[in-house]
Amino acid sequence: MELSNAIKNIINRFGTQVLPTRQFVNLLDDIGGFKDEPAASKKVMKGLLESGFGEMLYRLSEKKDGNWQNPIRKSVSDYASKSGYKDELINRIAAQLLYSVGLIDELPKIENSYKTKSTTPKRRIKDPKELLYALKQEYITALSELLTITTDEYGHKYGYYSTEANTRLYVIEGKIRLIAREVGAPDIDSWLITERKKIENNSRPSKSDIKRALDDQITVLVRDYRALMEKGHIVEDDEFGLKSAKFAPNAISDLLSMEKKIIIIGNKLKEDRQSWIDKTKRDFLASKSSPASARYGVIDQLKNDYLSRLSELDRSTKSGEIDYSDTTLKDTRRKLVNLGSLLGKNMEQWCNIENDKLSKEREAKASKRKKRNIIASAVAGAALLIGGWQGISYTSSADARKAYETTMATANAEYAQGNYIAALDLFQKAENDYDASYSSSSYKGEAHAKAVEISDKIIADWEEKVRPLLKSKKVTQAKALTLALPANLVLDGNSEQVFKSISDQINSDLATRVTEMVDVLLNDIYTHQGKLSEAGKTELNEMIKIVPDNYWLNFIKEKTK
User: For all residues of the chain together, what is the average pLDDT?
Assistant: First the structure.
C-alpha cells in the first residue's frame, strides 16, 4: 500500500485529530504504510510529527487556511536542519502528509532515488557553490514560469502563486537552504524573499495606479449621489408656512446603499467621507428649504404673539397666578420651541424666563396691596378698641376655631408620619377655611407658616434627588420628579431661589436633550428605512411623557405609526 493511501486510510478511520499522536506512525506501520518507502521513512515521519508538524498539520487541515505554506515550510526547514536526514526524504514525507489531508491537490514529481536507480549515468555537480548557483537559477526560472496572472476589481493585472506552484517552489527552496548551510550562506532566506517579490511586483499595479482608479470610482459615485438626491427629495409646506425639504422614503435606502460604497472607497483613500456625506445632505436640504432668514422672521413674530397673549392674561387675571396652560399661549409656545429647535435656539427657556418675569411683577404688586390692607386693618382695629368692641360676640368664632384646631392636629399627624403632600393640603385647608373674626391673622399665620415649613422640606428632598440626576445627564428623570411636585407648594426665601435655579437648569438641559433626541430619532428612521427601531420607539415614548407638546417628537410618532 502506498504511504499516501495508508495515511488517508488512518484519517478516515480515526479523523485528523490522530495526526499529532504517537499512535499515528505505529498505525501506519501496522497496515504496511512504510513497506515501499525508504528504511528511514518511519523515523523521519515520527520525528517530523513530534517536532510540531503534526499539530500544525491537524490545525491547518481543520481550518482549511489558505496561508499555510509559510508556517509549513518553516517547520520542515527547522526539522531538516536539526535531524541530519536528507532533505529529499524529509520533503517527500511532508508532501505525502500534505497531500493526504487535502492541503495540496497532487504529489510533487520528485525524483525517487530510493526505489529505482537510473541506468543512464548523469553528470553530478561536485562543487556545492556551483550546485547552489544552479539551484538559484532554477528557482528564478520557476518563479517566472509558475506565476499566475489575474485581474483585480480595478482592472489591473497582478500575479500570485497557486497552491501547486507554491509546493513546487517549496521543494526547490528546501534544496537551496540545505546547500546554503553547507557553503555558509546565512542570508539565503532574505535572497529567496527578495527574488519572489521581484517577480510578483513586476506584475502588480503601482500605488499611483490604484489611487487613480479609486479617484475615478469616487468621482462617479459622488456624481451619482448628487443626482439621486436631486431626484429623490420632496418639498412640503410646514406649519409655519415655510418650505421644508426632505428625502422620500423610497430614496433613503438607495442613498444609504450608495453612502456605504462611498465610505468604503473613502477609507481606502484615507478620507473621512462620512463627514462629507452629512454636510452634503444638510447643505442640499437647506438649499431646497426656505432660508434661515425667513425662519428667524417667523420666530420673531411668534415671540411678539407670546408676549401679547401674556399681557392679555395679566389684564384679565385680577388675583392669583396666571394660567400658563392657556390654550393660545400653549400653542404659541409649542411653535416657538419647535421652530427654535430647527435654528438651534432654546425657545423653551425664553418662554420660561418671560413667564417668571410676569409672575414676579404680579407678586410685587400683590405685596404692595397686602401692605396697604394691613395698614387699613390696623386703623379699623384701633377704632374698635377705642369705642366699639362691646358689641362683638365671640360665640360665632368658637366653631371655626374648633374646626381649625382639628384640621391642624390632623395635618401635624400626617407631617410627623412623613406624608408631606397630605400635610401640606391640610395646612392650607386650615388657613383658607378659617373665617372667624377672632385673631384671624394669628390663626391663618400659624397655618401658613407650617405650609411654608413643609414646602421647604419637600423642596429639600426634591433637590437631594434631582442634583445627582442632572450631574449624570439624566435630565428626563429630573424633569419627571419636578412635574410630580405638588402644585400648591408655598415657596419663600431660599427655597424659592433653589427651586427656580434648579428648574431653570432642568428646562435648559431638557431643551438641549430634546434637540439631540430629535436628531437621534431622525437618524434612526433614516438608518432603518423610514421606521423606528424598538429602542427608538422606547426613547420616543419616554421623551413624549416629559415633553408632550413638542412638535418634532409628535411628528415622528405620527409618521412612524
Answer: 81
